[in-house]
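Supplementary Methods, section 5.1.

A reviewer requested that the exact input to the structure prediction be made available. We therefore reproduce it here, unchanged from the version used in the analyses.
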Amino acid sequence: MILELPSPFAVVSHDAGAASHILEWIAAERPSCRTLLSGPARDLWQRRLPGVVPAATLDEALDGARAVLTGTGWSSDLEHAARARARELGLHSVAVIDHWVNYPMRFVRRGVTVLPDEIWVTDPWAAAIARRCFHGLQVVEKPNLYLEAQLADIGPVAQAADDVLFVLEPARDDWGQGEPGEFQALDYFMRRRADLGLPAGATVRLRPHPSDPPGKYHAWVERHSVERVCMDRSASLAEAISGCRWVAGLHSAAMVVALAAGRRVVSALPPWGPPIALPQPGIVQLRRVPGRT
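The structure derived from this sequence is encoded token-by-token as follows.
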């Protein structure tokens, strides 16, 4: 079993990353659980498991639960509140970490740290980071069913176009430049993409992050319309990756999916930006590619 939790348990989720993993585990095992969902996680669940009816409040979700399973996202306090309430009720709490950066900060809100009883990750790199950050806390590596599902739906490289898929994400920092980091990375990529040896005339397709508000990149696309830039209209990440040989981004988890699918993957973080958070080998760092800066 993957979900080795006392039944019934509660699932509380907001951000898309951990929600994607939890969804696949739930779909595989169909355990007895109640959900409290918001934001991108709610949208993902409605598409993947439309028959699941979420609870209306945290107390309702935890009523009768014997354990709590949460994500560890940045965009909401919901998951943090669920861990805090689980501690008050004496419920076993498990948190899923879906990335490779800022582990301790995920459990802090307004100066208050609430750690779970157990942390689940889906690869050895994440497990090693978690064990360094949380001494004495149980860290368990679970199968990455989300990655398996994505790879099953991604077409072969041989059938892909020479387009570039740029998987976006909020940088949550301006890196001292007075402009959101994600736009700086986009501009840096456009200035230097020729140094990568991309095919002449390759289209750059922008795929927003699930947490990005609608229309966030429309003005940027309009300013670059003569450079073969457009928004990606694919119905899923797997479909978007299927249509491209190249995938660029900052350090999005979507880049890891693309790498596993055999795509050429590039981090467009500029030289003045932060270090790349992805530990997987094989990702090209544009700032280390010879050429103009």
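The mean pLDDT is 94. These observations are discussed further in the main text.
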